[in-house]
Automatic annotation (TrEMBL):
This is NADPH:quinone reductase-like Zn-dependent oxidoreductase. The lineage of its organism: Bacteria, Bacillati, Actinomycetota, Actinomycetes, Pseudonocardiales. It comes from the Bacteria. Transmembrane segments: none annotated. SUPFAM superfamilies: GroES-like, NAD(P)-binding Rossmann-fold domains. InterPro entries: GroES-like_sf, NAD(P)-bd_dom_sf, Zn-ADH-like_protein.
Length: 320
């Protein structure tokens, strides 16, 4: 079959022949409709992501919208390495039919980033029954912006959204969303603005898509609210992405002065079964318009152009 093929770490994929995926008696081969080029796809293909098994050559892609033999559109993913979803055919362990009204390429672009925020939000709501105020760091990327919408859809009282894309941040601003622009050239000013927003509406949940120095500023803002003996002021800090850096210093004073729990959310800390169970709910949000994901489609034969794609839209690989 024809597929995008990565020969070595950091190599740009090429359009080439690749062996058909291994057949499974209980799973029919699916035909590609669209596969999103997510940050995690690049990380796995370069062997920089913790989930990489460093086996090459490989076909990139972790999820997709595909077509069954009888013509149904399904969301699917988690193919067995070295096969990925950026190929004409795939064999996967699960599939969920798309609901009416869902744009299949928007689903391909947005399901992975949408799930990254949805899972900790659902976990928190199940744990305590309410979300309260949610702070989203990296809110202007696709994952962060979808997390803002998910938080509101799941009943958050208020969302504090911070990100570096001022135009995208402005689109998020609303009655229940306070925005704090992230200015790399003026980190002290941003930290002060974040501190003021956190003091006005202390978050019960933090979704961090960027980590690094942004997380350190957030820690300082949370610590700056002072000691608290209010049993309802617990803070759950969830680390999801590391676009701003892979390391962040966690101050001892924050751990001692607040009831705070720092955890991560991703493959390994969240089971595949848990994620698959939430797929129908997230698909429904794309169908009813709560979620949307802007995309740019590239034929599989132009995988090199897709790999170089940048901007506010997500590259989606489609059949030729």
């Amino acid at each position: 079959m024809r597929a995008a093929v990565v020969g070595t770490p950091d190599a740009t994929p090429v359009y080439a022949e690749f062996p058909d995926p291994q057949q499974h008696p209980d799973r029919e081969p699916l035909q590609l409709v669209g596969a999103g080029l997510h940050h995690v796809v690049r990380g796995l293909a370069s062997a920089r992501h913790y989930g990489s098994n460093r086996a090459f050559p490989l076909v990139p892609g972790i999820d997709a919208v595909a077509r069954t033999r009888d013509g149904r559109l399904v969301y699917t993913g988690l193919p067995r390495s070295p096969w990925g979803t950026m190929a004409e055919r795939m064999v996967t362990p699960f599939d969920v039919e798309l609901p009416a009204g869902a744009d299949p390429l928007a689903v391909a672009a947005g399901m992975n980033p949408g799930m990254s925020g949805w899972m900790p939000l659902i976990a928190r709501r199940k744990e305590v029954g309410a979300l309260g105020t949610v702070l989203v760091l990296g809110a202007t990327g696709m994952s962060g912006s979808l997390a803002v919408r998910a938080a509101l859809a799941l009943g958050a009282d208020r969302v504090i959204a911070s990100g570096r894309d001022h135009e995208a941040l402005e689109r998020l601003h609303g009655v229940d969303v306070a925005t704090v622009p992230l200015a790399h050239r003026e980190p002290a000013a941003w930290a002060a603005a974040l501190g003021a927003a956190v003091a006005q509406a202390p978050p019960a949940l933090v979704l961090d898509f960027v980590w690094g120095p942004v997380a350190e500023a957030a820690f300082a803002a949370l610590a700056g609210t002072g000691p608290s003996d209010d049993e309802t002021s617990d803070v759950a800090y969830v680390q999801i992405g590391s676009l701003a850096g892979t390391e962040a210093a966690l101050p001892a004073a924050l751990l001692r002065s607040r009831r705070i729990r720092v955890t991560g959310s991703g493959v390994g800390s969240v089971s595949k079964a848990q994620m698959i169970a939430e797929v129908p709910e997230v698909l429904a949000r794309f169908a009813d318009g709560t979620f949307d994901a802007p995309y740019t489609a590239y034929p599989l034969s132009r995988i090199g152009e897709a790999w170089a794609h940048q901007g506010r839209t997500r590259a989606v690989v489609v059949p030729d």
